[in-house]
């Protein structure tokens, strides 16, 4: 390599070396506190304690904009599985988003606890503005029904709400004004780097960073979903904003709310990752799975947390909170530097290799001051500690095989965060030049094609929750189910449940949409993807390929073994649709006439 180029790179890398050392020491401090102090000792209630505690009235607020593709399934599934009775859901929609409003209204027609909250103007404005409309609808409901909500919970249209979360909020909100249930991405294939990056980051952040933050007395930013607030605390915020709980000009109202509640002296609690029956108690959801969607979402996070937060609050906080503001804002510089640090590392390796092959001195090493070399060595050690810490957190939640790709996903994350930070700076400066508000850059959401077994409510509990069967009938039937027969099949034979009712319940339990495809949707060539014997054995019939997904009707709830078998025939993402056995036989008879 030219001597002048190595000298220039060595000089330009001086600020980088200093930054890597400072940022690495900061991360190492948090890691050491986590390792030495351990997890906070939160007394975890038993199931019996949660069930015996009187249920306080809870309101769930859900802001919506163009969510018609997912909101119906989200509401149906969660309303069926939440293990709590004394709650209502208020879904905020805009007048110019009729498809979403129709989906919510359709579900509300089946569930009295769901209420439509219409924003008084067209959208999109901001998530906070939509939440304020849901808040006002909640208060109007209170006035008309003579009730009072004690806890208010925030959720999004893509959330798979943990069925125990409301019971936990009911328990812990007696002592805390803000209770945060963990939020974890649903698992995707390890080499799906963009979504896998969210799995890595959320595992590390909630296992380590949030627990250390809580232990050292830092304010807790809400995660935006799975957060329960004491009603009185939100009323204090509303009183300071002319009745608006959430600031409509803020892009990250969750972070802002957590910050302001702590400033008011409210007690905050992050529950931490708690495993129950080998699954973490957490709100689960899909996060962006493409580079563009991820940078779009993260640019909003950076603009709201780092830029708007700095603009609104500066550093005017008690000295103990300054450090956490630094932690929240240092990504403004660190994210921009990350890819360049990676390129410099690769350049160093390449130049060293070239020098070795040519048997000439490594000029980059000669041009680098000794103190910088020590900085790089220390930064490399700090980075290794962070990589292994992240891999440990990912392995704990998603398994060791998933965790092995975390270092590669981290490199991909450097690029995503760099682009997102640059975009957030552009948006922020553009809004300031034009003296306007920053727009709500909404993320496109997806809902699980079917729920993992550890996320499902038992069929008997679901039937009781939906009032399709009495608890006494279920308790009486369970010991009488003959070997080889399932509960649903026994209830049908005993005339306690219809086949239609059973399959509706299975659809809600698994998250698989139910219903026959339209004739026009069925592609005859696609129906021949699987061998006839496999169709009969698994009761599966592929019928359409769309946007990289293979749509399959099934009369049986698919298992992990089913997924593995199908993966051997097609690399496409599988989307199941549940049909009754008779409907499946009609489809098989029409499109596979040679079967018998």
Account of the 3D structure:
The structure is a single chain. This protein is of the alpha/beta class. The chain folds into three domains: 1-38 and 54-448, Spore Coat Polysaccharide Biosynthesis Protein SpsA, Chain A (Alpha-Beta Complex), CATH 3.90.550; 457-510; 519-591, GMP Synthetase, Chain A, domain 3 (2-Layer Sandwich), CATH 3.30.300.160. 54% of the residues lie in helices and 10% in strands. It has 24 helices and 14 strands. It has helices at 3-12, 14-37, 47-52, 71-81, 98-108, 127-145, 165-172, 193-215, 231-239, 253-263, 291-313, 319-329, 331-358, 363-367, 370-398, 400-403, 406-434, 459-465, 471-477, 487-493, 499-510, 532-538, 560-567, 581-591, and strands spanning 58-63, 87-93, 114-118, 151-154, 178-180, 183-185, 227-230, 268-270, 275-276, 279-280, 283-285, 540-546, 549-554, 573-578. It has a seven-stranded mixed β-sheet, sandwiched between helices. Strands 12-13-14 form a three-stranded mixed β-sheet, sandwiched between helices. Strands 6-11 form a two-stranded parallel ribbon. Strand 9 (275-276) and strand 10 form a beta hairpin. Helix 2 (14-37) crosses helix 8 (193-215), helix 4 crosses helix 21 and helix 8 packs across helix 17 (406-434).
| Number of E-type strands | 14
* Spatial strand arrangement across the major sheet: 3-2-1-4-7-5-8
The figure for the number of domains is: 3
**Strand portion:** 5-15%
Give the overall shape.
globular
Supply the number of helical segments: 24
- Taking the alpha carbons of the first and last residues, their distance comes to 73 Å
Helix amount: 40-55%
Structural class: alpha/beta
CATH class of the largest domain: Alpha Beta
CATH architecture heading of the largest domain: Alpha-Beta Complex
Mean pLDDT: 87
Query: What ranges have pLDDT less than 50 throughout 5 or more consecutive residues?
Result: none
Largest sheet: 7 strands, mixed
Predict the CATH topology of the largest domain: Spore Coat Polysaccharide Biosynthesis Protein SpsA, Chain A
* Radius of gyration from CA coordinates: 27 Å
Look at the structure and name the CATH superfamily of the largest domain: Spore Coat Polysaccharide Biosynthesis Protein SpsA, Chain A
């Amino acid at each position: 390599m030219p001597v002048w180029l190595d000298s220039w790179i060595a000089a330009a890398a001086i600020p980088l070396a200093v930054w890597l050392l400072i940022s690495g020491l900061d991360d190492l401090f948090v890691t050491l506190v986590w390792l030495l102090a351990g997890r906070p000792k939160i007394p975890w209630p038993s199931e019996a304690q949660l069930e015996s505690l009187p249920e306080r009235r809870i309101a769930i607020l859900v802001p919506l904009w163009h969510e018609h593709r997912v909101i119906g399934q989200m509401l149906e599934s969660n309303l069926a599985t939440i293990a709590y009775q004394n709650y209502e859901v208020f879904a905020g929609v805009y007048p110019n988003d009729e498809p979403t409003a129709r989906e919510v209204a359709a579900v509300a027609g089946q569930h009295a606890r769901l209420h439509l909250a219409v924003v008084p103007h067209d959208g999109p404005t901001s998530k906070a503005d939509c939440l304020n409309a849901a808040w006002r609808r909640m208060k109007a409901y209170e006035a008309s029904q003579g009730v009072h909500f004690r806890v208010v919970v925030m959720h999004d249209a893509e959330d798979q709400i943990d069925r125990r979360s409301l019971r936990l909020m009911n328990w812990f909100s007696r002592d805390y004004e803000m209770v945060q249930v963990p939020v974890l991405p649903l698992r995707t294939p390890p080499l799906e780097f963009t979504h896998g990056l969210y799995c890595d980051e959320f595992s590390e952040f909630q296992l380590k960073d949030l627990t250390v933050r809580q232990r050292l007395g830092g304010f807790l930013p809400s995660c935006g979903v799975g957060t329960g607030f004491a009603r009185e605390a939100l009323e204090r915020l509303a009183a300071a904003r002319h009745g608006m709980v959430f600031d409509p000009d803020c892009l990250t109202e969750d972070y802002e709310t957590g910050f302001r509640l702590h400033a008011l002296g409210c007690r905050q609690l992050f529950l931490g990752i708690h495993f129950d029956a080998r699954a973490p108690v957490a709100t689960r959801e899909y996060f962006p799975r493409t580079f563009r969607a991820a940078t779009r979402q993260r640019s909003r996070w950076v603009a709201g947390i780092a830029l708007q937060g700095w603009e609104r609050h500066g550093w005017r906080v008690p000295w103990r909170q300054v450090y956490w503001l630094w932690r929240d804002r240092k990504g403004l510089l660190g994210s921009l530097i990350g890819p360049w640090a990676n390129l410099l590392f690769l350049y160093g390796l390449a130049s060293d290799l070239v020098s070795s092959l040519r048997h000439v001195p490594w000029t980059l090493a000669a041009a680098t001051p000794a103190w910088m070399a020590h900085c790089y060595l220390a930064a490399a050690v700090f980075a290794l500690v962070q990589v292994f810490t992240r891999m440990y957190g990912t392995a704990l939640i998603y398994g060791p095989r998933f965790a092995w790709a975390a270092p590669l996903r981290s490199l991909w994350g450097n690029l995503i965060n760099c682009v997102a930070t640059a975009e957030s700076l552009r948006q922020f400066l553009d809004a300031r030049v034009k003296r306007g508000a920053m727009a709500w850059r909404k993320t496109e959401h997806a809902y699980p094609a079917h729920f993992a077994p550890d996320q499902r409510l038992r069929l008997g509990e679901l039937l009781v929750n939906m009032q399709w069967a009495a608890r006494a009938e279920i308790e009486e039937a369970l010991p009488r189910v003959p070997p080889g027969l399932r509960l649903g099949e026994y209830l049908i034979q005993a005339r306690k449940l219809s086949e239609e009712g059973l399959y509706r319940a299975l659809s809600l339990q698994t998250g698989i949409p139910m219903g026959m495809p339209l004739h026009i949707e069925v592609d005859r060539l696609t129906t021949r993807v699987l061998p006839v014997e496999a169709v009969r054995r698994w009761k599966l019939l592929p019928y359409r390929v769309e946007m990289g997904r293979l749509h399959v009707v099934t009369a049986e709830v698919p298992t992990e073994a089913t997924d593995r078998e199908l993966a051997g025939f097609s690399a496409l993402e599988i989307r199941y649709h549940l049909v009754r056995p008779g409907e499946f036989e009609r489809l098989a008879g029409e499109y596979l006439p040679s079967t018998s």
